[in-house]
Amino acid sequence: MDDYMSWIKLGFFLSVLFLLAAACSTSPKLESTEGNKVRLTLQVWGNPAEVKVYQRVLDAFEKENPNIEVKLVPVPGDQYEQKLLTQLQGSRGPDVFYSYEPTIARLIEAKQVQPLGEFLTSDASDVKAEDFPEGLWGPAKRDGEIYGITPDSNPMVMYYNKKVFKEAGVKTPQEYDDEGKWNWDAFEEVTSKLKAAGKQGYIAENWWAHWYSWVWSNGGRIFDEQGKYVLDHNEKGKEAFRFMYDMVSKGNAVYLGSLPKEQGADAMFMSNQVGMLAAGRWLEPLFSQNQNLDFDYIYWPSNTGKNEPVAIPVAYVAVNKNSPHLQEAMKLASFYVSVKGQEARLVEGGNAMGTLVAADESIMKKATIEHSSYLTEGRNRGHAHGSALAYDAQVPGLNSDITETMDLMFLGKQDAAATIEKLNQIISKAVK
C-alpha cells in the first residue's frame, strides 16, 4: 500500500497512534464504509455464456459481503490485453482483473499489481497459497512473492463433432483411442477423410497451448525441466514443428489466422463445417447450449504410446495496486479463487476445472460430456504457461515474438526449418 500513496502529515501524535493501532492488528482489515457500500470492478474476458458463469461467483460474494458491490466488466478477448495495459498505465484500471500468463509478467515488472502473499496468510483471506498446486503458479510467483492466483485450470483437449464424423463416414477419435491407435497417423488419416468429404478436418490456432501440446505429444521439448532452451537440438521437438506445418500446408488443417475475422472456430464447429478443434473447457457452456450439436472430448493424439502432458491455460486473478479499496479488492480476489468461488462458477456446467482438490471433486461430479475424464487427466499431467517446460511466459515480450514467427509458418510464408532457425535466434537472445 505504501508504494502507491503517501502518508498525510497529521502530526507526530496522530502518527504514533496510527502505528500503535497497526501493530495491534493481527490481520488486514476491510476498510470502514460507514454505512456506504464499497464498489469494485472485476474485468474479465469471455463469450456470453462464460460471463454468466463469472457472475455466479459475484452473486455469492456479495451475499457474504453485503457491504461490497462488484461490477463485472467483460472485454472481448482480442482486445483484452491492450485495453488492460492501457488502463493500468493510466492508473484507471479495474480493481480486480483476469490476466494472461505473459501479461502478468509484464505487470509485475512495471509494479502495477498488488503483492498478495501477506494477505493470503491472514484471516481475511478465503484461501491460502499452500492450497494450490505449485506447478500452476508460473510467472505469477516471483522471488517468493505472489502477484496473481489461479481460479481454475483449462487443460487442452480436442473437441470433435460427432455429426460431422458420422455424415462423412469417418471413424471417431474415440474409436481410434479404444484401439490404442489415437496418434499422429490417425489424426492425419481422419483429417484427410474429412477434407475429402467436403469438411475442414481441424482448426489450427497460433498460441502457446497448441504449440506445446503438439511438441509434448511427440515426446519433444522446447524448454527442458529446468527451463533451459533445447529446441535447437531436440529432434522430437523439431519433428512436431514439421508436422504442424505439414497439416496446414496439405490442407488437413485450416489456420484460423487465415480466415475472415467473422469466421470463428466455435461458429465453424457449431455449424458443422469442421470436425475437430482444440481448446480447454471454456467452449463447453456455449456448445452445450446448442441442442443440435453432438460433441465429445478426446485426449491429444500421442506418438509415444501413452498420453503425454498437455498445455494447461490458466487465468490469474490479480489486484490493481492503485485500487482505492485494496483490502476489499484482495478479499474479492481470495473469495473468487476459493473453494466457494470455484464451486459457484464451475459445479453447474462450468467453463473450466478447479485448481483446488477440495473443489475439483464437486465440480466434476456433474460433468455431462461423456469423456470429461480427459480434462482431469490433462490437468494431472500437464503444465501451465510459465512453468519450466513452457518457460517463455517468464520473459516479458518473448511469447509475442514467438507468436509472430509462428504466424509466418502457419500462413505458408516460411517452412518449419526456417521457423525453427528464427526461434533459435529469438529465444537464445531473450533467455541469456
UniProtKB/TrEMBL annotation:
Pfam families: SBP_bac_1 (PF01547). InterPro entries: Bact_solute-bd_prot1 (IPR050490), SBP (IPR006059). PANTHER family: ARABINOSE-BINDING PROTEIN-RELATED, DIACETYLCHITOBIOSE BINDING PROTEIN DASA. This is Sugar ABC transporter substrate-binding protein. It comes from Paenibacillus kribbensis.
